[in-house]
Design goal:
The chain is an alpha/beta fold. It is 44% helix and 13% strand. An eight-stranded parallel sheet has the order 1-8-7-6-5-4-3-2. Helix 10 links the parallel strand 4 and strand 5. Helix 3 crosses helix 7 and helix 8 crosses helix 9. The longest helix is centred in the middle third of the chain and has 18 residues. The chain is globular and about 50 Å long. The two termini are 29 Å apart. The mean pLDDT is 94.
Amino acid sequence: MAVDLTSYLAAGGETPRLWVNFNDYTKKLLLGKDENPWTTPASYMSFYGQAHGLVKAQVVVLDVWDLFQHWMKEDADALPSMAGKRRVTVALKTMLEAFAPRELLAEVITALGNNYGSSTPMVLVIPSPRSLLVKAHQAANGEAAEPDEMNVDTAAMYMADFLRYFSETDLSGVMLVEDPELMPANGEELSWYQPIYNVAKHYRWSVGVYLPSADTDYDVPADINFAIAPAGSPTAAKSKGIEITDMLWGDKAGEALPATNGFYYLTIPADAKPEEVLDTLATIKG
């Protein structure tokens, strides 16, 4: 049975839960240059087991865009199948409907569920519909796409269909990641993702959104169970997740961490020193 993500993230008490984005860091540390951990379910499980244990992660995280990037690079038919169409949503639709990466992800989720599912929440982390729309079109056609409301709504429907494929797994939730260069103008634009919220609610998954902008004050729709925003940003004061990366490795390093009734989120820099990472994580966890 899947762990309730929203309740789990709120259960840290005086020592907030810690959600660690460790994908780039552990890939550089554990894999050879350009090595693909997504070759088979077994190869990914081998990599992920080491990576998860290395940082003693409190959330099992699967980076969906990382999977698709490897697929587009290694499958000679991937990009040609996505390219050349006038409608900007075609590349995204083709990518999400591709059987090989979708089935590989399903097998990995099942395997991870057997290892962690009853004690640790398992989350799919995927670019938001506006972000994934632009990323897929850029990868296939080498040009930018306009993420207007109609295109983003269509992208959200395609993503909702993609997520239904994992309905029989022990997923706890889905986190949508906004691109700092493509941020929504306001909280109302987050409602363009409604098809995803509907699917998440139907399968009793929590759904969250990562808002990396430190400037805009977002009123997050009620259908979103949690938001993550940088410490000190206007949105952070009303978010369950507080990003503290900059307070550990950035311009605000050394400052006291803000109090929260929710959880902390951080990204380990790819070039961070392992000893420093372990000491930092140990200090935060108390």
